[in-house]
Amino acid sequence: MVKAFVDTLTEAASDDSLRAVHIRGAGSDFCAGVDWSSNPSAERPRTGDLVRRVPHGSHRVIELVHTIQLPVVCSVRGWAAGLGCNLALAADFTVAASDSVFWEPFLDRGFSPDSGSTWLLPRLVGLARAKSMLLLGEKVSGPDAADWGLIHRCVGDDELDDVAAELVARLASGPTVAIGLAKQAIHYGQHATLPQSMNQELFNLELSSRTKDFKEGLAAFREKRTPDFGGR
């Protein structure tokens, strides 16, 4: 599944007909993470096996969601655990049902966190709450996740599909190139100085101002109408 996810996101990243990405679980839970109990009799992996494989699997999924030049929306019902939790955190907008639960179970299972959790959580909720989730294994409900700023919004279960669809449609109708460049600049600014960030903004502005959507935005402003962006 992880390989298929990597392949799909890689294809989406280079498909300029796409305007947004929407990720959701197929069942009652968003994603329970790796199934460690599926093969309890398996031999211990050889030394270095995880170092060799993980960067091309779960870590690549998080990296692609974080860097793809398209807005990414996650809809979360039920459990979002481990990789599933970090996938929801890496998305640009995560909308969760009120019964959802976000959980980083790594240390509860005796191993250290992965898939970007130690980078994402402190930036989203601060060190104290990040340590509560990562070191104490604290489970966070959908309402609390929204209050903490861990996710975009928490809604009733019966509202989730409509709210997520409305958000995806809004993003998909926007100036796709400018959205992608703004997303890139926001993430770049997390590890850059103010002058470095403004320099990056300058180059992004140069690119976005050459798009058809930029011309449409100016025309719509002059004509006092809603812009009709084409993503070009």
From TrEMBL:
A Pfam family hit: ECH_1
Gene3D superfamilies listed in its UniProt record: 2-enoyl-CoA Hydratase, Chain A, domain 1, Lyase 2-enoyl-coa Hydratase, Chain A, domain 2
Domain of life: Bacteria
Any one GO molecular function term: catalytic activity
Coiled coil: none
Stated family: Belongs to the enoyl-CoA hydratase/isomerase family.
Protein name: Enoyl-CoA hydratase
